Amino acid sequence: MRINFPAVFTAREVLMARLEEKLKTALFEGLTDDDVDRFFDLTSLQTFKDEAVIIEEGDVGDRMFVVASGEVRVEKATIDMKQEVLAILGPGECFGELSLVDRMPRSATVRAKGETSVYVFSQSDLDAFFDVNPDIHRKVLQNLAKITSQRLRWLDDTLVQSVYDSIILVDTSCIIIQWKRITEDRRSLEGQIQPEHAPGNDLFKVVPHLGEGIRKKIMQVISSGEIAILQLDYELSPGRPVYFEVTVAPYMNGEVAAGAILALRDITETKALEAQLIQAEKLAMAGQMSAEIGHELNNYLAVISGHTDLLLDNKDLQGFARANKSLQAISDQIRKVERFTAGLMDLGMLRSKHEKTDLNQLVEKLVQVIQGQSRFRQTEFVLKADPDLPDLEIDPGQIQQVLLNLYANASDAMGKGRIITRTRFVEDGQRVTLTVEDNGPGMPDEVKERIFDTGFTTKSTGHGFGLAVCSRIIENHQGRIEVESHPGKGTLFTLTFKLD
Q1: What angle do CA 216, 219, 222 make, to 5 degrees?
Q2: Is residue 463 a part of any domain in this protein?
């Protein structure tokens, strides 16, 4: 179909041009221009704001949608209740279409990604239309079958692979029914035999290092019907520990528990990074506390030293040899204590080990590691990276610590929300900026003015060292950290690094 646009054209004509040019849906394949026009006579156009829920998992399936402008995000809760993004759909793509066939509740949640307009087709209007147009009904059903098949294949190939490394299905006696190793490029659970030969064998004979604790947990899940998440760790070889997150869910045959599903995800790198960040924060806090102690001691020593020097210069005391000897000894000890306090203050300098680092990769890797953690499960991370960003001479561990602190603070403040990280190369100024922006509640001026002060916190469980340490780290990189925030409008942190 070729469309020649008139000087003034309708939204429907624009959409139909998009459908033809971008070929983003197969829903109308095989329909004539007249059939498609009649089909769209049934529709109404609705606009949704960013993050607005268009359909929610479990809702009654009484409408079908086609994206007119903007994008939508399709989300699905996994067996461990994490929200995973199944797809991003753009103009011309349809969703909610299965309600035309099975009349079942919604199987996923769909949200607007930015301001989005969608065409809405009600189930009752479609039923009446299809009753008098059986040929169109048949073609649409055929197209729906193709769309569903393509999406199921995509889910099998990408979604599950991105979440888990292995899926094991066992019966109520822990006999393996199926063992699917999803990925070969990450560590998988090692057994006495290969997964393809595992069915029919006892899980705990095949993988003896699982232990009785996991057997008991599987039995609890089968009997209670509740999902459990636990951690498994063992050594591949001496000094080479591996860690897995194991999600255990009941396997139901109708209303009867027939076994359990074990979904395993390798979290070894996550554990290593967590340990590194925790150690870095401990050292930073120890250094900060040492610097504070050294500073306070210096204040007291300055008073004592001043009075000692005055006594040494007092002519009335200079004739007393023993007194002068004692005063000199005190003065010498004060100098030693001053050298000691200087050492304490040096600990607070947060010694950095700089190396050439790709900042975009650093951010991307950190987000990949933390986004599965419970603290960040309701947070959407968006990275807008400058492809021309030059490498920086930085301490990657310390900069990760800064970002983790900013992400954690934002996630705690928002509950559910979005964090956008942007990198930018400012060529004229020979500098690189990294911004972390959230859509949380923001901060009043009196809080914003004190957030980098040591000991200041707005959290009941906070210690007040996090942002103070972040500020010190950026200063030691000869950079700047700045904050913009207004109540109800979110918060923006800007990190600036010089290239010279």
Answers
A1: 155
A2: yes
Q: Provide the pLDDT for residue 420.
A: 94
pLDDT at residue number 333: 82
Q: Which two tokens stand for residue 71?
A: 């994008």
* Cβ proximity of 243 and 233 under 8 Å: yes
Question: What is the dihedral angle through the alpha carbons of 149, 150, 153, 157, rounded to the nearest 10 degrees?
Answer: -170
Q: For residue 5, is it within any domain?
A: no
Q: Which of 44, 60, 41 is nearest to 129 (CA)?
A: 41
With b for 16 or more beta-carbon neighbours within 10 A and e for fewer, the 312-345 pattern comes to eeeeeeeeeeeeeeebeeeeeebeeebeebeebb
**Number of domains, the chain:** 4
Q: Per the domain annotation, does 449 fall within a domain?
A: yes
Pair 435, 422: CB distance under 8 Å: yes
Q: Which residues pair with 443 in a beta bridge?
A: none
State the amino acid at position 33 in one-letter form.
D
Domain with 41 in it:
11-161
Query: What CA–CA distance (Å, rounded) separates 115 from 118?
Result: 10
Q: What is the pLDDT of residue 85?
A: 72
Residue 327 contacts residue 308 (beta carbons within 8 Å): yes
Strands (E), 346-479: 355-357, 379-384, 392-394, 417-426, 431-438
Residue 294: CB partners within 8 Å, gap ≥ 6? Answer: 341, 342, 343, 344, 345, 347, 348
Shortest CA distance to 74 belongs to which of 37, 27, 118?
A: 118
Number of continuous H segments (helices) and E segments (strands) in the chain: 13, 18
Query: Structure tokens of 58?
Result: 């479990």
Residue spans of the chain under pLDDT 70: 1-26, 77-84, 99-101, 148-164, 182-192, 273-289, 291-292, 295, 342-352, 372-374, 429, 454-455, 459-465, 500
Letter string b/e over residues 392-430, b meaning 16 or more CB atoms within 10 A of that residue's CB: bebbbbbbbbbbbbbbbbbbebbeebbbbbbbbbeeeee
Residues 253, 257, 259, 264: is their CA dihedral positive or negative?
positive
Residues 146 and 237 both lie in one domain: no
Are residues 276 and 201 part of one domain?
no
Cβ atoms of 421 and 381 within 8 Å: the answer is yes
3-state secondary structure of 252: strand
With both helix axes pointing from N to C terminus, report the angle between 268-313 and 321-347 in degrees, rounded to the nearest 10.
160
| Same domain for 157 and 16 | yes
